[in-house]
Design goal:
6-stranded parallel beta sheet; TIM Barrel; alpha/beta; single chain; about 15% strand; about 35% helix; globular
């Protein structure tokens, strides 16, 4: 595999964010990193972009990625030990999960088996293709179990927009929203980019995440650090990443 090679370090415009709370850098557990070397290459790009701390969030999507919390913890601990041998100025702060609301999700929540960001926040996602009914009730149940839910990348769900009643209701419920930095750079297309900016300008977004998967994403993050529109947005809005 050819790893991402940086021609030059980007300006660290994401230093004001400081902590990434959504990425897929535990090797070989989902569609993210394929090995320690790729994880390290991604971490270097994140470090150069200004990040100091990272929570890694593997997919828990059944049946595609039927991950087990104990196994993921062990793999993360092993990764931490391996990364220590590299010259990095970015810390692996913890491991959580990105849980798709679908089969087995309610069972995991009921049994309190979910891995949380900063021991508090439950990162959730929806299908990128099909609207799911009952999401508000599901989020209510999540809160009743003591989790603070985060909805990952709402800008990537094409069936939602700023006028969606369902999305507005989730916001009123107290669900936190996390937009992908790369969405703002057009990585997922113009629709996601426009929705991402729109949700942030509306005051709906508490968190930004890289959703880093591999070295292709690392290169896109490096390129995003030259994006003047993103830099201007970061100067205008405050996010809660630094509190994690």
């Amino acid at each position: 595999m050819s790893w991402f090679h940086r021609n030059k370090s980007p300006r660290p415009i994401l230093e004001c964010i400081g902590t990434d709370m959504h990425c897929h850098l535990v090797p070989n557990v989902d569609d993210g990193s394929r090995g320690v070397e790729e994880t390290v290459a991604c971490l270097r790009a994140m470090q150069d972009a200004g990040y100091k701390k990272v929570y890694i969030t593997p997919h828990f999507t059944f049946p595609r990625y039927p991950n087990d919390a104990d196994d993921i913890r062990q793999r993360f601990d092993a990764l931490q030990r391996e990364v220590e041998s590299y010259d990095l100025d970015i810390r692996l702060a913890g491991v959580a999960g990105e849980y798709q609301i679908g089969d087995k999700f309610n069972e995991l929540v009921e049994n309190a088996k979910c891995l949380k960001v900063a021991d508090k926040y439950l990162l959730t996602e929806l299908s990128l293709h099909q609207r799911r009914m009952g999401v508000e009730e599901t989020m209510f149940n999540v809160m009743m179990k003591g989790y603070d839910p985060i909805l990952a990348h709402p800008e990537r769900y094409p069936y939602y927009n700023i006028n969606s009643r369902e999305l507005s209701n989730l916001k009123e419920q107290g669900v936190l929203f996390q937009v992908n930095v790369l969405s703002l750079a057009g990585f997922y297309g113009e629709g996601a980019m426009h929705r991402g900016f729109e949700y942030i300008e509306a005051g709906w977004v508490e968190l930004l995440g890289t959703d880093m998967h591999n070295t292709m994403y690392a290169k896109a993050l490096t390129d995003a650090c030259t994006n003047k529109k993103i830099e201007k947005l970061l100067s205008k809005h405050t996010f809660m990443n630094s509190t994690l």
